[in-house]
Amino acid sequence: MSLSYTLVVTSPLYGKQGSATALNFANALVAEGHQLKTVFFYLDGVTNSLSTSLPASDEVDIHQCWIELKNNSGCELLVCSAAAYRRGVVAKEDLENQAVESFNMSHQFTMSGLAEMATAMLSSDRVVQL
Predict the structure, then answer these.
(1) For 59-62, which contacts have Cβ atoms below 8 Å and span 24 or more sequence positions?
(2) CA-to-CA distance for 120 and 123, rounded, in angstroms?
(3) Does domain 4-129 have CATH number 3.40.1260.10?
(4) Domain boundaries in the chain?
(5) Separation CA 70–CA 66 (nearest Å)
(6) How does pLDDT run across 76-110, given as a tens digit for each residue?
(7) Do 113 and 80 form a contact (C-beta atoms < 8 A)?
(8) 80 is catalytic
């Protein structure tokens, strides 16, 4: 039986195992035929959307892996705007509204709010937070 999932990622891009674990879990869901509807990045998890991360050549580029997951599964990659702004993550669309000179969030991710997270959670069979 195929289920739909929303994944909530609260771990930073690097420095802890949570983002890599969430990515592996998401890929396993898709491989097993489940639908991954939304990945919502919250708290320190918003750093997964940074287009300016430059991992060493011998490390996994987790940011790029999220984009590949999106392209392969059709899931949405949503970033909590309040958590993002507190951590210096800015989308291109927000340059006019915020007092910053440049953006650093990948265009593959979408700035959103807790309302979108709640909607995603209510429309999924399962919600998993990592």
Answers:
(1) 60/20, 62/13, 62/14, 62/19, 62/20, 62/23
(2) 5
(3) yes
(4) 4-129
(5) 6
(6) 999 999 999 999 888 888 777 777 777 888 899 99
(7) yes
(8) yes
Backbone angles phi, psi at 108, to 5 degrees: -75, -15
Alpha helices by DSSP H, 1-130 = 18-31, 62-73, 81-86, 114-122
Token look-up 């807790």 returns 114
Instruction: Please report, for residues 5, 33, 117, 119, the alpha-carbon distance to residue 114 in angstroms, rounded to integers and kept in the order given.
Output: 17, 27, 5, 9
By CB neighbour count within 10 A (0-12 exposed, 13-18 middle, 19+ buried), where does 110 fall?
Answer: middle
Q: What is the pLDDT of residue 84?
A: 92
Q: If DSSP codes are grouped into helix, strand and coil, which group holds residue 38?
A: strand
Instruction: Report the 10 Å Cβ neighbour count for 39.
Output: 26
Secondary structure (DSSP) of 70-86: HHHH--EEEEEHHHHHH
Q: Which of 80, 83, 84, 111 is catalytic?
A: 80
Contact 72/30 with Cβ under 8 angstroms?
Answer: yes
The pTM for the full model equals 0.92
Say whether pLDDT at 35 is over 90: yes
